[in-house]
Structure formats: structure tokens, C-alpha cells
Amino acid sequence: MTASRRDILGPALVTLLLFCAGGVASWFLAAPALSAPTMSAYDIERMVLYYSTLPRLATALLAGAALALSGALFQQVLRNPLADPTTLGVSAGANLALVITSLFLPGLLGAGRDLVALVGSGVAAAIVVSLGARRGFSPYSLVLSGLVLSLWCGGLAAILTYLNQKYLASLFIWGAGSLAQQSWVIPVSLIWKLAVVSIICAVLIRPLSLLDLGESSSSALGVKLIRLRAIVIVCAVALAAFVTSAVGVIGFIGLVAPTITRLAGARRPAQLILWSPLVGAGLLFFADSVLQLVAGELGDFLPTGAVTAIFGSPLLLALLPRLKIRHRIQQAAIQKRSRRWDTKIPIIIAFSILVLLLLLSMFVGRGVDGSWTLVFGEYSLDILSIRIPKIFAVLASGAMLAVAGAILQRLTGNEMASPEVLGISAGSTFGVAIALFSIAPGFSGQFLFAVIGAIIVLSMILLGSRRSSFAPERVLLAGIALSAMVDAVVGVLSSTGDPRAVLLMRWMSGSTYLVDGMSAAAETVIAVILIATAFAARRWLDILPLGPAPSAAVGVPLARARLALFGLAGLLTATATLTIGPLSFVGLMGPHLAREAGLTRAMPQMIGASLIGGGLMVAADFVGRTIVSPYQIPAGLVSALIGAPFLMLMMRRKA
Prior knowledge:
The chain is an all-alpha fold. The chain is built from 26 helices and 2 strands. Helix 16 runs antiparallel to helix 19.
């Protein structure tokens, strides 16, 4: 009885604190309208209170509860503490569906907005779950599939917004999670939807609790696993879709609320499912109340989803050392050394394909009338002088990101580790954003700020993971939290209306529009130096994945080696991000493709990854320049659209 009371007391105290803090902040919001004497029947302050402030607070409570319940359901049924609507790509799928519908079929939004979001979320969830089912629903495969799909959906949505800014500009703030309200329509529609799904979840609590006994034991007790998973996933997807349809993408709540609930003492699934929505409601309620109080008149224009991530990320990082994760992400098994001819052939093939892509990108393009043409004649030198710097800039950037991904994956023993997933690219973005909004420097200044941002993120990941000896799941959680926080800060800066936000958005999309000969030469030289340094550290990268004890036994200085390699990955990422932005996932794709080609040792894998990453970015730049000519799609966005389907096809194979 005492243990049960402790299990309830912790979550109850957390919920009470969040609601009290949010209540105090909201009281200051409502006090002017309530204390002002009523001079007439038409009181503007009271109208704003009744039809804007109060509906917004109610929406925050309902949206927070729905997202937290969705995350708790995902985590329980998939046995994965990292699962939530964001990491599984569900929210991104709903957002992409709404963007496409807004552009091509706007009439559907009036009659079936929720249905559009449900279809997008359902398709995303079906893809991720089908990929995870082929590998036994392992946390690694599920979250990797979700992150890749989320990046793909986000990249496509960004391309559509970039090409149709005149029509979709209003989706920017909404897409980042805006709770601004002008009536009670949205909270009233959310409350009955949440009530229906909650009733279904209450019926499913007992079979969900039996899953803790294991699949065989729960099946012996009469639990139909396939049917249970399907129903629970449908409920979780519906909750995330309803919220995305109503207020846009509010990330992080579905991950942090169940985590806080678990850390507060909730042990049983029934307790987790009961308290997570209350904690999520209190968390979003508190964050939005503080946002309105601090921002004042700008509160309606600042995305609450971004601000929530700013609040939630440090909290999760602070609680991370106390988190007990039952399901460790499996480390990749160290494969035997490939025979010499097996190592050379993939590298030769990758190099040959890269040369063909370079020639194609240099000498093939679209003419004035839109037809395909070769570069020749009197203007060929002028065209090549503009085209070649951009090609070599993306080539160097893709190679650097791929090598950085290979280093991070070998250091952490985690195939999900990459500059994009661990938030290092987001750190570089944050540095460049600060530079643009403060001193607007040139290439050298932006490089310095990008390096500082990447190093700060790396340092925070190292500090948050050192107690666990860099356990892959803790490194991943720290990376997700920091990435969400940095992206949120950049989102807030971009939503201020400052004209420099347009430059930041163009840069984040990976556009090579401003690349010239000098910046391309500087980036290429830096790439050669840094990649050569990585090749020189091949012995460390071969030994460190064996573990701390074997590494120390052969004389590898663990602390210095890890620090130097993490710093090298940060430098590679910062330099590459300056050209192709943070949205590309070449750092995740390149090492995977190299490993699938049989390149398992450090040196061959880095060579293969650099060739593949560089080739992928050259292809992305060529496609973006020619596919919708005379318009150009940024290479960073195109690389995500090219790479994600290939990576998902590879993951369909059973482990």
C-alpha cells in the first residue's frame, strides 16, 4: 500500500505544481479584464478574455493531454521509451497532408480537416510500424524509421512552402504550433474527440498492462497482440492528428510528459496512461501561460510549440541521468573484416558513379525554352564559372557530413547517430542564426558561429551522457532534446517578422544560391583537411567500438580520443551546414549505404561514405536545379527527398 501511494504521490505533486504555476501566470493574464469596471455592454478587454484568452488556455490543456496520452500509448504498446508522435513521424505526416491539401485541394479543409490530418498521420504510422514489424519492433528501427520519415515529410512540406510562399506563408507560424484562438470552436471540438478516445483507452488498460509480462505470457492469457497493437496505434495516431489539425505541430510533449511521469514514480501502465495526460496538460498550460505573460501583444505570433520545446528540453536533460530505460537500443554487431577485393569493388563503383554525376551536373542543364541541353558555345565558360563552385561546395559538404556521421556512429555504437539526429546540425544552425540576427558576418564569421554552436551542442551531449558511459539511448535522448530546443529557438527568431528571417529560411533549406568561387574553394580546402584528419584517426575508430576495456588495454587514451573525435565531427558538421543547411540527412544515409555495401572497417567505411554522401548531394543539386526549371529547389531539401525512400527500402529487409 505504501509503495502504491508513493507511485501516486509523485505524479500528483508534479501535476499540482504545473497547474499551480500555470494558474498563477494565467491569473495575471485575466486580472486586468476581471478587475476593470464594466463601463458598457461592449467591453473589449472582457471580450478578449472570454473569446481569446480562455479558449486558448482550454486548448492548451486539451492539446497537452492529447499529445501526452498519444505518447504514453505509443511507448507502452511498442515497448519503446523514445516513441511519441514526433519521433515516429506521425505529426509530420499530418502536417504534410494539410500543406498539400491547402495548396491543391483547399476545399477539403472546410469539410474534412480532421480527416485529412488522420489520413496523413495514418499513412506515416503505417509506414513506420510496417518497417518496425520486420525487425521485431526494436526501438532502433522504429525511431530511425520515424525520424527519417519525419525528415522526408518536413522536407517536402518545406519545398512546397518555399515554392508557394505567397499562398502558404500563413502556415509557417501555425505549423510550429500556434494556440491563438478567436472562439470556443476548437476547444469544444477537441474535448469530445479526446473523450471518445479516452473511453477506448480505459477499456484497453488491462490488456496493455499484461504486455509487461512479455508477448508469450500475454498471449497465453488471451491477449490478441496484433489486434491490441492496431487499436492502440489507431488511438494514438488519432490523438496526434486531431491536435495537428487544430493547432499545428506541437512537438516534444508526447515524449517529455510520459518521461516525467515515469521519473515521478509511475510504475504500472495504468498509472502511466492516467497521469501522463494530466502532466502533459499542465506542461503545455504552464508554457503557454508564461508565453502570453512574457510576450504580451506578440504572444499570438510566437509559436507555442517552439516555446514548449525551449521549456521542456532543459527539463528532460536535467532528468535524463535518473531515467531507467529498460529497452536498450541494440548496438550494431562488429562484422568480420571483408576480403580485399570486397572492399575495393564498392569504393570503385561509388567513385565511378560520383564522376558520372559530376560530369552530368556540370555539362547538362535546361535551356531557355525548358528543353534539355549540353553546355557548349560562347557562354559555356560563363555558365561553368557559376555552376562549378556550387557543385564542388555541395560535394565537399556531403562528404563531410557523411564522414561526421560515420565517426558518430562508431563512437556511440548507435546506427542512429548522425549530425542531424544528435542535434549537431541544429547547433550549427543556431550559431548562424545568432550571427545573422546580430552582426550579419561573411563566410568566415558564419563558420565561426556555426562551429561554436556545434561544439556547444556536442559538449552538452557529452556532459549529459558521461555518467552512462555514452549509452546509445541516452546519447539519442540528449540529442533529440537539444535538437528540439535549438530548432525551437530558431523558430521563434524566424517568426518575429524580421526581414533577416527570410535569409535564415533560405539558408536552412540548403540553397546554394549565394555560393561563389571563394567560399566554395574555402569549403573544399577545409573539407580536405578535416577528412584527412578523420582518416588519420582510423585506428581509434576501429578500436573504440570494441568497448572501453579493450580500447584502454591497447593503449588508446579514451577521454582524449573521444573528445578529439567528437570535436572533429562538430567541425565537419559546422562547415557542411553552411552550404547545405541542417535539413539534409546525408550524415545518416552515407554511413548506412557504405555499411550495406560491405565496408565495415573505419577507413573503407569513411571513404565509401564520403563518396556516397558527396554523390548524393551532387545529384540533389542537379535535380533541384533542373526538375522545375527555371525555378530551383534547394539541394538540402532535395537530398532528403532522394535519400529517405532508399533508406526505408533498405530497412525493409529483416535484421
